[in-house]
Write a structure and sequence with these properties.
Layout lengths: L1 E6 L7 H15 L3 E6 L13 H5 L9 H10 L2 E9 L2 E2 L1 H15 L9 E8 L4 H14 L12 E3 L12 H21 L2
Length: about 190
């Protein structure tokens, strides 16, 4: 069993990256192989809405990093998505990845269906609910199963070093519990 964690922050050693790493480390402790994918330094162009993926079985755009990431998403049994929250929403690079991935999956036997995963959002103060909902909607439309935790998988961390993810004990405990639940579910689903 393998889970990939996609961290959508472009900041080096970002707070979002720290929450995703904690989640993946906990999955590893539970015997689940993991891989971290950072969107930092990656180019993901937005969906063109051309529906060529319906004809071709793949996205027509091939001059960015989308296809490599999609292959890893397709091969994994688990997918964890982490996004910082800017202006009460998921960052555009993450949504571009998810929009294109959804269209390709829809025309290819809905290959995300049955996988396990969940979102993590990170904000300084507000906006979590909208961004978290955006990611939940992606999981639902693609037929993934989402395990719960002790709270929503949201982290509170400030910008410019004002507050670090490591100081958010409740957020770290929440993603740890989520990862433990995810590992348990994956073992039941993929046993």
């Amino acid at each position: 069993m393998k889970t990939i964690g996609i961290a959508a922050s472009f900041r080096p050693d970002s707070n979002t990256l720290q929450y995703v790493k904690k989640t993946l480390a906990t999955l590893e402790e539970n015997g689940v192989e993991t891989e971290l994918i950072s969107l930092r330094g990656k180019e993901i162009k937005p969906c063109l809405g051309c529906y060529k993926c319906q004809e071709l079985g793949r996205c027509v755009q091939d001059k960015d990093d989308f296809h490599d990431i999609l292959e890893k998403m397709k091969e994994a049994e688990g997918i964890v998505l982490g996004s910082p929250v800017y202006l009460s929403s998921v960052v555009p690079q993450m949504m571009a990845l998810l929009d294109r991935a959804t269209f390709v999956a829809l025309w290819n036997d809905r290959f995300f269906t049955g996988k396990v995963g969940g979102p993590i959002t990170v904000a300084r103060r507000a906006g979590h609910n909208l961004a978290f909902s955006q990611l939940l909607l992606w999981y639902f439309i693609n037929g993934l199963t989402i395990p719960g935790s002790t709270y929503w998988n949201v982290g509170t961390a400030g910008s410019r070093g004002a507050r670090d993810a490591a100081e958010d004990e409740e957020g770290m405990a929440t993603v740890t519990n989520f990862a433990n639940n995810m590992a348990g579910l994956m073992k039941k689903v993929y046993a």
